[in-house]
Amino acid sequence: QFVNADPDGLVFVNNATSGVNTVLRSLRFKKGEELLVTDQAYNACRNALEFAAKTWGAKVVVAKMPFPFRKECELIDPLIEGMTARTRLLMIDHVTSQTGVILPIGKIITQARRRGIEVLIDGAHAPGMVPVNLKKLKPTYYTGNCHKWICGPKTAAFLYVDRSRRDSIHPLTISHGITSPRQDR
User: Fold this and answer.
1) How many whole angstroms separate alpha carbon 88 and alpha carbon 30?
2) What is the DSSP string of 80-93?
3) Do the bridges between strand 87-93 and strand 34-38 make them parallel or antiparallel, or are there none, so unpaired?
4) What is the pTM assigned to this prediction?
5) CA 125, CA 145: separation in Å to the nearest integer?
6) Contacts by 140-145 with C-beta closer than 8 Å and gap 24+?
7) Is 34 helix (H, G, I), strand (E, B) or coil?
8) Secondary structure class of 136 (helix, strand, coil)
9) Which residues neighbour 91 within 8 Å (Cβ) at sequence distance 6 or greater?
10) Can you give the pLDDT at residue 100?
11) Measured between alpha carbons, how far is 46 from 32 in angstroms, rounded to an integer?
12) Which DSSP letter does residue 36 get?
Protein backbone atom coordinates (compact mmCIF):
# COMPACT_ATOMS: atom_id res chain seq x y z
CA GLN A 1 0.00 0.00 0.00
CA PHE A 2 2.88 2.37 0.78
CA VAL A 3 3.89 2.48 -2.90
CA ASN A 4 0.47 1.41 -4.26
CA ALA A 5 1.82 -1.64 -6.07
CA ASP A 6 0.38 -4.98 -7.06
CA PRO A 7 1.84 -7.23 -4.32
CA ASP A 8 2.48 -10.02 -6.84
CA GLY A 9 4.95 -7.73 -8.61
CA LEU A 10 6.88 -6.62 -5.53
CA VAL A 11 9.87 -8.39 -3.97
CA PHE A 12 12.40 -7.38 -1.36
CA VAL A 13 16.03 -6.84 -2.38
CA ASN A 14 19.10 -5.71 -0.43
CA ASN A 15 19.14 -2.21 -1.89
CA ALA A 16 18.09 -0.28 -4.96
CA THR A 17 21.38 -1.00 -6.71
CA SER A 18 20.69 -4.72 -6.29
CA GLY A 19 17.25 -4.11 -7.80
CA VAL A 20 18.79 -2.39 -10.81
CA ASN A 21 21.31 -5.21 -11.21
CA THR A 22 18.55 -7.82 -10.93
CA VAL A 23 16.73 -6.25 -13.86
CA LEU A 24 19.80 -5.60 -16.00
CA ARG A 25 21.24 -9.09 -15.43
CA SER A 26 17.89 -10.64 -16.38
CA LEU A 27 17.31 -8.76 -19.62
CA ARG A 28 18.75 -9.72 -22.98
CA PHE A 29 19.59 -7.00 -25.46
CA LYS A 30 20.20 -7.17 -29.19
CA LYS A 31 23.32 -5.79 -30.78
CA GLY A 32 22.74 -2.14 -31.61
CA GLU A 33 19.85 -1.59 -29.19
CA GLU A 34 20.18 1.55 -27.12
CA LEU A 35 20.01 1.97 -23.35
CA LEU A 36 19.19 5.56 -22.45
CA VAL A 37 20.38 7.12 -19.19
CA THR A 38 21.00 10.64 -17.88
CA ASP A 39 24.30 12.16 -16.89
CA GLN A 40 22.78 12.41 -13.38
CA ALA A 41 22.50 8.61 -12.91
CA TYR A 42 23.86 7.06 -9.74
CA ASN A 43 27.32 5.77 -10.65
CA ALA A 44 26.83 2.20 -9.36
CA CYS A 45 23.68 1.82 -11.47
CA ARG A 46 25.34 3.47 -14.45
CA ASN A 47 28.17 0.94 -14.15
CA ALA A 48 25.63 -1.92 -14.16
CA LEU A 49 24.03 -0.44 -17.28
CA GLU A 50 27.41 -0.13 -19.01
CA PHE A 51 28.17 -3.76 -18.12
CA ALA A 52 24.87 -4.97 -19.55
CA ALA A 53 25.42 -2.96 -22.74
CA LYS A 54 28.92 -4.34 -23.19
CA THR A 55 27.75 -7.89 -22.52
CA TRP A 56 25.07 -7.79 -25.21
CA GLY A 57 26.53 -5.35 -27.72
CA ALA A 58 24.05 -2.61 -26.89
CA LYS A 59 24.91 1.08 -26.84
CA VAL A 60 24.56 3.42 -23.87
CA VAL A 61 23.17 6.83 -24.83
CA VAL A 62 23.58 9.62 -22.27
CA ALA A 63 21.09 12.49 -22.10
CA LYS A 64 22.67 15.59 -20.62
CA MET A 65 20.46 17.35 -18.08
CA PRO A 66 21.07 20.93 -17.06
CA PHE A 67 21.79 21.86 -13.46
CA PRO A 68 20.51 24.14 -12.30
CA PHE A 69 17.42 24.13 -14.45
CA ARG A 70 14.61 26.65 -14.73
CA LYS A 71 11.72 24.72 -16.29
CA GLU A 72 10.55 21.14 -16.06
CA CYS A 73 10.82 20.74 -19.82
CA GLU A 74 14.59 21.11 -19.48
CA LEU A 75 14.54 17.76 -17.62
CA ILE A 76 12.18 16.02 -20.05
CA ASP A 77 13.32 17.29 -23.46
CA PRO A 78 16.88 15.82 -23.37
CA LEU A 79 15.38 12.38 -22.70
CA ILE A 80 12.82 12.69 -25.49
CA GLU A 81 15.60 13.79 -27.85
CA GLY A 82 17.61 10.71 -26.82
CA MET A 83 14.75 8.29 -27.57
CA THR A 84 15.05 6.61 -30.95
CA ALA A 85 13.57 3.58 -32.68
CA ARG A 86 16.56 1.62 -31.29
CA THR A 87 15.97 2.64 -27.65
CA ARG A 88 15.00 -0.47 -25.68
CA LEU A 89 15.39 0.73 -22.09
CA LEU A 90 15.43 4.02 -20.24
CA MET A 91 17.02 4.02 -16.78
CA ILE A 92 16.42 7.14 -14.71
CA ASP A 93 16.57 8.18 -11.09
CA HIS A 94 13.37 9.29 -9.37
CA VAL A 95 15.47 11.62 -7.20
CA THR A 96 19.01 12.22 -8.40
CA SER A 97 21.69 11.32 -5.88
CA GLN A 98 24.17 14.05 -6.81
CA THR A 99 21.80 17.01 -6.95
CA GLY A 100 18.59 15.91 -5.19
CA VAL A 101 16.48 16.87 -8.21
CA ILE A 102 13.08 15.17 -8.25
CA LEU A 103 12.61 14.14 -11.85
CA PRO A 104 9.11 14.33 -13.38
CA ILE A 105 9.08 10.57 -13.87
CA GLY A 106 5.35 10.34 -14.58
CA LYS A 107 5.72 12.49 -17.69
CA ILE A 108 8.96 10.78 -18.67
CA ILE A 109 7.44 7.30 -18.32
CA THR A 110 4.47 8.37 -20.45
CA GLN A 111 6.78 9.57 -23.24
CA ALA A 112 8.82 6.36 -23.12
CA ARG A 113 5.77 4.06 -23.11
CA ARG A 114 4.35 5.87 -26.16
CA ARG A 115 7.50 4.83 -27.97
CA GLY A 116 7.50 1.24 -26.69
CA ILE A 117 10.50 1.81 -24.40
CA GLU A 118 10.77 -0.05 -21.10
CA VAL A 119 11.54 2.12 -18.07
CA LEU A 120 13.71 1.21 -15.10
CA ILE A 121 13.40 3.70 -12.24
CA ASP A 122 16.16 3.91 -9.64
CA GLY A 123 14.03 5.19 -6.79
CA ALA A 124 16.71 4.81 -4.12
CA HIS A 125 15.95 8.17 -2.52
CA ALA A 126 12.24 8.46 -3.24
CA PRO A 127 10.21 6.28 -0.79
CA GLY A 128 9.32 8.47 2.18
CA MET A 129 10.67 11.62 0.53
CA VAL A 130 8.12 11.89 -2.27
CA PRO A 131 4.88 9.99 -2.92
CA VAL A 132 5.41 6.80 -4.94
CA ASN A 133 2.29 5.45 -6.63
CA LEU A 134 3.32 2.60 -8.92
CA LYS A 135 -0.20 1.88 -10.18
CA LYS A 136 -0.40 5.46 -11.40
CA LEU A 137 3.18 5.78 -12.67
CA LYS A 138 3.21 2.41 -14.50
CA PRO A 139 6.97 1.93 -14.83
CA THR A 140 8.23 -1.34 -16.22
CA TYR A 141 10.59 -1.67 -13.25
CA TYR A 142 10.97 0.39 -10.07
CA THR A 143 13.40 -0.18 -7.24
CA GLY A 144 13.62 1.86 -4.04
CA ASN A 145 15.37 1.84 -0.69
CA CYS A 146 13.51 1.63 2.60
CA HIS A 147 16.49 2.56 4.79
CA LYS A 148 16.73 6.21 3.84
CA TRP A 149 13.63 8.36 4.44
CA ILE A 150 11.39 5.71 5.98
CA CYS A 151 14.16 4.70 8.41
CA GLY A 152 14.04 0.96 7.75
CA PRO A 153 17.13 -1.14 8.41
CA LYS A 154 19.97 -1.31 5.90
CA THR A 155 19.34 -4.05 3.32
CA ALA A 156 15.65 -3.12 3.21
CA ALA A 157 14.64 -2.28 -0.33
CA PHE A 158 12.15 -3.42 -2.95
CA LEU A 159 11.90 -4.16 -6.63
CA TYR A 160 8.65 -3.84 -8.54
CA VAL A 161 8.20 -5.47 -11.94
CA ASP A 162 5.25 -4.85 -14.26
CA ARG A 163 3.04 -7.88 -14.87
CA SER A 164 4.09 -8.07 -18.52
CA ARG A 165 7.77 -8.61 -17.64
CA ARG A 166 7.66 -10.74 -14.47
CA ASP A 167 8.53 -14.02 -16.19
CA SER A 168 11.76 -12.56 -17.55
CA ILE A 169 13.22 -11.31 -14.26
CA HIS A 170 15.23 -13.63 -12.04
CA PRO A 171 16.97 -13.10 -8.69
CA LEU A 172 20.64 -12.15 -8.73
CA THR A 173 21.41 -15.30 -6.76
CA ILE A 174 19.94 -18.44 -8.25
CA SER A 175 19.55 -21.17 -5.64
CA HIS A 176 17.32 -24.09 -4.66
CA GLY A 177 14.05 -22.17 -4.73
CA ILE A 178 13.99 -21.54 -8.46
CA THR A 179 13.05 -25.18 -9.15
CA SER A 180 10.96 -25.80 -6.04
CA PRO A 181 7.20 -25.68 -6.53
CA ARG A 182 5.45 -22.94 -4.57
CA GLN A 183 3.45 -24.27 -1.67
CA ASP A 184 1.42 -21.13 -0.99
CA ARG A 185 -0.81 -21.28 -4.08
Assistant:
1) 9
2) HHH--TTEEEEEEE
3) parallel
4) 0.94
5) 7
6) 140/164, 140/165, 141/19, 141/23, 141/165, 141/169, 142/3, 142/5, 142/94, 143/13, 143/16, 143/18, 143/19, 143/20, 143/22, 143/23, 144/3, 144/16, 144/19, 144/94, 145/15, 145/16
7) strand
8) helix
9) 20, 35, 36, 37, 41, 45, 49, 119, 120, 121, 122
10) 94
11) 18
12) E
CA angle, residues 149, 154, 157, in degrees to nearest 5:
70
pLDDT attached to residue 40: 95
CA distance 12 to 153: 13
Question: Mean pLDDT in each 10-residue stretch from start to end of the chain (185 residues)?
Answer: 95 96 98 97 98 98 95 97 98 95 97 98 95 97 93 92 95 79 66
Residue 28 pairs in a beta bridge with: none
Cα–Cα distance measured from residue 8 to residue 125, given in angstroms and rounded to the nearest whole number: 23
**How far apart (Å, rounded) are the C-alpha atoms in residues 143 and 151?**
16
**Phi first, then psi: what are they for 35, rounded to 5°?**
-115, 115
Phi, psi at residue 105, to the nearest 5°?
Answer: -65, -30
Residue 122 CB neighbour total at 10 angstroms: 30
CA–CA dist 27, 29 (Å, integer): 7
Q: How far apart are CA 133 and CA 106, in angstroms?
A: 10
